[in-house]
Amino acid sequence: MTRFARASGRRVALGIALGLLAGGGACPVLASPPGAAPTLPWQLLESRPHDAGAFTQGLVATGGVLLESTGDCCPPGYGQSSIRRVDPRTGSVLAIRRNPPPVFAEGVTVLRGTAWQLTYYDGVAYSLSPTTLEQQSTVRYQREGWGITTHAGLLLASDGSSRLRWLRPPGLDVVKSVQVREGGQPIELLNELEMLGGVLWANVWKSDRIALIDPSRGVVRAWLDMSRLRRSIAPGGEVLNGIARDPVTGHVIVTGKNWNRMFVIRLSQPVPAATR
């Protein structure tokens, strides 16, 4: 893709978003094509404020707050990339560290007391203090940065393809990789990642769907369709992006790029075992 293809595509994403689902409470199970993973029902528990100016790239809970990484695209968006400490109840920005232009910040996670923030095409990743946001190091990172989480004591990152890579800090050397598949077919555009209860949750860019993945095998175990949340956000909200354990309830928070709300949800049934 070109330098700004991903950013401009984000603007188009609204036009191709899934249709809104009617009704409240649990989201109904949607019919799936043969061989596909099921789409699970979920419940909306709570809606909370979120900074609509945040072009959310990554979200993770740490020390009772949320760390949020934000970015934005071509000029005049440059200069909007940041890492923030956010109050999970009110959405208030408690502290912020801005990335220097033209850095396009991406996913963020915390491993063994160190925050790691990726960049999209800038060729670097940053390690920071999750409490002070003070930058500790800059590490060369040769792939596109998209999403990042932790698994098995390592960092686990996406790059917009169907492949996930385990990285060992501090040099971010690739330890292993796996291709994410559903019914044998690769699932592309994996973006924001969060490991929850042994299941990898992954936003799929250009959609309002979340894949629930067996991280070791790369098999999609189920899907979530989050499109009905769009009726609860202000105009201007872009694609779903942002998944974290809620520090308040222990459930899951989801939000999106330039969404003025974040939502606490829970699954209505267990994630089924991977069958292939």
Features:
276 residues; mainly beta; Neuraminidase; 1 helix; 46% strand; globular; disordered N terminus
Folded structure, characterized:
The protein has one helix at 5-13, and strands at 42-49, 56-62, 65-70, 82-86, 93-98, 105-111, 114-119, 124-128, 135-140, 148-151, 154-158, 163-168, 173-179, 181-182, 185-186, 190-196, 199-204, 209-214, 219-225, 240-245, 252-256, 261-267. The strands form 6 sheets. It has a 4-stranded antiparallel β-sheet with strand order 1-22-21-20, with no helix packed on it. Strands 2-3-4-5 form a 4-stranded antiparallel β-sheet, with no helix packed on it. Residues 1-34 have low confidence and may be disordered. The protein has one domain (5-21, 30-267): TolB, C-terminal domain (Neuraminidase, 6 Propeller). It is globular. A hairpin with a 4-residue loop joins strand 11 (154-158) and strand 12. The protein is mainly β and 276 residues long. The chain is 3% helix and 46% strand.
- Total strands: the figure is 22
Helix content: under 10%
Distinct helical segment count: 1
| Radius of gyration computed on alpha carbons | 17 Å
Quick recap of the structure?
This protein is mainly beta and 276 residues long. Helix content is 3%, strand content 46%. It has one helix at 5-13, and strands at 42-49, 56-62, 65-70, 82-86, 93-98, 105-111, 114-119, 124-128, 135-140, 148-151, 154-158, 163-168, 173-179, 181-182, 185-186, 190-196, 199-204, 209-214, 219-225, 240-245, 252-256, 261-267.
